[in-house]
Amino acid sequence: MAMAARCFMQRAKISSLVFWAALSVIGTGCSKMNENGHEKAAVMAVGQARGKTKEVSSQIYDMIGVREGKVTPAGPGVSECREDPKRMYSMRHTWSVYDVPMGELSRGFETLKQRLPSHGWKILKDGPNDSPAKTPELIADSTKEQFTANIALIGPGSGKPGIMVTLVSACFRLPEGADLHGEY
């Protein structure tokens, strides 16, 4: 794995921990509640959810508008949901755009910030994160799909410049007879 990709993956692990903690507090805002006040999960096969996750990630990439950079190759992954780890899961997709000048990355980040609301996203946070570098960060909920995105503009003081995106879905319920075994 290239050094830049390894660096982004290490940052992604740390950001994911922070992001997951934030998600537990803010939720996704996209799911319906059942009569007990718990989220009612949509039924979706893992392959279908993986495709939807790729589609939403592609939409975010298109909104950023940075075409000259490199993009980390990893695809969406599956995580069990605590409510019912055998029947419920969520999707996560962390990727980055890098190897372009910082000015272009900054323009892409600002363009994304301006485009998100007109593409069905509600910005929940827009400002520096709690890191020593005070990295610019956006957290947004999709008003159309069951996803939350954490987008960070990584500057030269934090390593190799890039835009890191972590996309996480709400919990989905497996169709009857389906199994999470072997999914990743």
List keywords for this structure.
184 residues, alpha+beta, 9-stranded mixed β-sheet, two-stranded antiparallel ribbon, 30% strand, disordered N terminus
Shape: elongated
Assembly state of the chains shown = single chain
In whole angstroms, the N-to-C terminal distance is 20 Å
Could you give the count of β-strands? 11
Task: Output mean pLDDT.
Answer: 82
Order of helices and strands: HEEEHEEEHEEEEE
Question: Can you walk me through this structure?
Answer:
The chain has 184 residues and is of the alpha+beta class. It has 3 helices and 11 strands. The protein has helices spanning 3-26, 46-64, 102-115; strands spanning 32-33, 39-40, 42-43, 70-71, 77-80, 88-98, 121-128, 136-142, 147-154, 162-169, 172-173. A hairpin with a 7-residue loop joins strand 9 and strand 10 (162-169). Residues 1-38 have low confidence and may be disordered.
Write the layout of secondary structure elements.
Elements: H1 3-26, E1 32-33, E2 39-40, E3 42-43, H2 46-64, E4 70-71, E5 77-80, E6 88-98, H3 102-115, E7 121-128, E8 136-142, E9 147-154, E10 162-169, E11 172-173
Parallel strand pairs: 3-11
Antiparallel strand pairs: 1-2, 4-6, 5-6, 6-10, 6-11, 7-8, 8-9, 9-10
